[in-house]
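Record type: monomer structure entry
Structure origin: computed from sequence
Chain ID: A
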Amino acid sequence: MCLAVPMKIASIDGFQCTCEARGIERDVSLFMMQDEDLKPGDHVLVHVGYVIQKISAAEANESWQLIDQILATEA
């Protein structure tokens, strides 16, 4: 199973950005999203170090709620 993690763009430098989710920051490539207008504050899905899709804040929040539910059933 593949999992893309919802994150928020904190800063952008060329085709690299720093994304944050739940206090964790990661440097992520924007290479696959070259034609998209992305800016700090946007929410994105990150998969294996690449931004693969821009999403809304509501979609990011809903994704985290579902991930929390899955993790709660595993405990």
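Annotation 1: The first strand starts at residue 5 and ends at 13.
Annotation 2: The chain has one helix and five strands.
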